[in-house]
Amino acid sequence: MMERMNGPGLHPLATVAVPRLAHEDSFSYKENLIGALLAIFGHLLISIALNLQKYSHIRLSGSKDHRVYFRTKTWWCGLFLLFLGELGVFSAYAFAPLSLIVPLGAVSVMASAIIGIIFIKEKWKPREFLRRYVLSFVGCGLAVVGTYLLITFGPNSHETMTGENITKHLVSWPFLLYTLVEIIIFCLLLYFYKERKANYIVVILLLVALLGSMTAITVKAVAGMIAVSIRGNLQLGYPIFYIMVVCMVATAAFQATFLTQASQLYDASQIASVGYILSTTVAVTAGATFYLDFTGEDVLHICMFALGCLIAFLGVFLITRNKRKSILFEPYISMDAMPGMQNLHDNGTAVQPDLRPSFSYGALENNDAISEIYAPATLPIVQEQHGSKGAPIPPYRVMEHSKGE
Q1: Rounded Cα–Cα distance for residues 260 and 258 (Å)
Q2: What are the residue ranges spanned by the domains of the chain?
Q3: In sequence order, what are the residues at sequence separation of 6 or more whose Cβ sits closer than 8 angstroms to the Cβ of residue 251?
Q4: Is residue 110 a contact partner of residue 144, using CB atoms and an 8 Å limit?
Q5: CA nearest 293: which of 235, 179, 216, 359?
Q6: Is 61 helix (H, G, I), strand (E, B) or coil?
Q7: Could you list the residue ranges that cross the membrane (predicted)?
Q8: Torsion on CA atoms 107, 110, 113, 115, rounded to nearest 10
Q9: Phi–psi pair at 383, nearest 5 degrees
Q10: If DSSP codes are grouped into helix, strand and coil, which group holds residue 382?
């Protein structure tokens, strides 16, 4: 019976090897699916939370209610959902490889686009509605297709995140070489940004992406070691755990600084699309170098995974390109016609949040300064003085006439 199953000349242990490998592949795919679902669920909650918090800010700014934002139930509800979302994304790193979880950030952009359309209460005819949001719908469809390919063809490397394994990866020559190249690129970009005043969006967001790759590596290590400790093998006594925690917090803080500077110079939709593409590319490269995510994968799976990333990139680009700035305050006299006056429309904030790439592993965004744009506008009144020849004529003036005139 044994020879009939194995064939003549085969070792009897071969009967155990094939079922064991099939079981491991099935178990790895289940872990990938659990991690992907946790990441998708977390990003959805994060998008809803940011919308609730921004809605709370805007409602307070547009009403006579003088309460601060943290005294409203809506803001606290958004904060609670934000915490759950970040916890879901954090937990996803304990189940699935880093290279699979990072590209799923497209779900946040897609969810914000859908929620944004729901928040807009303009009534459109069906043809006008489709014409207006055709790029958003196409982008969402591409993002869904890309997410499906990422989950289906994602890497199946599931190494136990123990202190010994993380230390071994930390001192491996591929990661040391990658770290050296990243430090050199980061220092060059920082020099051009600080000294040469190269305030290009690619330069700033590439700095964020380089820091974000280290944040993703440390988050994966911390989440994996906590998961192993919960299962009974305590890992919190290793010094590498606390080193990873410190690196995670430090890189996240520096990302927040650069993102704040980028948000002051560029539109949030540009930051969302360019930041997502750069952060995902660098983080996947870091995961493949540090955790060896694609070791043992065949060429077909790697190519299909890369295709899923490209489709998700295109979907995010189309979604963010279709966003328009909403005008919340319309003065009696258009500010565009007044030279030397700041245009309030340039600082307008939409009802739905324009999602920026997170400075950590989710999509946390600071909306505390939203009420600054609602300061009352003052228009200069210049009285015309008759008889002054050659003086420049102001664009707006108050004419004084006598009774005889």
Answers
A1: 5
A2: 13-374
A3: 211, 212, 214, 215, 218
A4: yes
A5: 216
A6: helix
A7: 32-53, 74-94, 100-120, 132-151, 171-193, 200-228, 240-259, 271-292, 298-319
A8: -50
A9: -85, 130
A10: coil
Measure the CA–CA gap between 221 and 226, rounded to whole angstroms: 9
Contact yes or no for 116/53 (Cβ under 8 A): no
Query: Mean pLDDT of residues grouped by 10 in the chain (405 residues)?
Result: 43 40 63 93 92 82 73 87 94 93 92 79 66 86 94 88 93 94 96 92 95 95 94 91 96 93 90 94 94 91 95 93 51 43 45 44 43 45 47 48 47
To which residue do tokens 């043809």 refer?
127
Instruction: Provide the H-helix boundaries in 94-200.
Output: 98-101, 106-119, 126-132, 134-152, 163-170, 173-194
Q: Which residues, at least 6 apart from 198, have a Cβ–Cβ distance to it below 8 Å?
A: 192
Q: Are 89 and 365 in contact (CB under 8 A)?
A: no
CA distance 76 to 49: 9
Q: What is the pLDDT of residue 342?
A: 46
Q: Residue 237 carries which side chain, given as an amino acid letter?
A: G
Question: Do residues 343 and 336 touch, judged by C-beta distance below 8 A?
Answer: yes
Identity at 125, one-letter amino acid code: K
Query: Is the sign of the CA dihedral 200, 204, 207, 213 positive or negative?
Result: negative
Name the token pair of 135: 């790029």
Q: Which H/E stretch holds residue 345?
A: none
User: What pLDDT sits at residue 53?
Assistant: 84
Q: What residues contact residue 31 under an 8 Å CB cut-off, 6+ apart?
A: 95, 96, 158
Residue corresponding to tokens 């497209």? 106
Integer Cα distance of 284 and 302 in angstroms: 12
Number of other residues whose CB lies within 10 A of the CB of residue 132: 15
232: amino acid identity, one letter: G
CA distance 337 to 176: 56
CB neighbours of residue 293 within 10 Å: 24
Helices (H), 62-133: 73-92, 98-101, 106-119, 126-132
